[in-house]
Amino acid sequence: xxxxxxxxxxxxxxxxxxxxxxVRRLAGTVLAxxxxxxxxxxxxDPRSVSGFCKRLREQGAALTDPSDPAxxxxxxxxxxxxxxxxxxxxxxxxxxxVARATTFDPKDPEDTQAFIAxxxxxxxxxxxxxxxxxxxxxxxxxxxxAPDDTxxxxxxxxxxxxxxxxxxxxxxxxxxASTPP
Length: 181
What we know:
two-stranded antiparallel sheet; disordered C terminus
């Protein structure tokens, strides 16, 4: 049989068609196996819950040890890139707060007040992460920056206006400092 261009048409071969389909299947299988191997080799999804929990367990006590604030900030920043999507935003907020803890000056009343405000704003994220890590990973995170719901405030930082402070006289009587005696 001839075609218009003068070329002969090859006769249909079941064996040739089966061979072409087999090659495509084999190529697809090899590609799937190679992709799976790459994902396994790279640790799979970098934001997987199981991978993140494994990282939390490996870090252990370092996650709640405030003795090295710069190291703690670095650890939280490294984990920030791997936080699962369910807690990504909360983890990032806490990471920023931990980093901020390395720069705040407890002797500066304004900076201390700003840090307290930032800590209070991040409290929901801190609580969310502590609960999530405990439930999903069985890792107790606790409350890194505010143990027992107290904030690390020094004696030099007043909380609230100082004009409203009550004074105690030598006789033990309490008077309001804002009114003259």
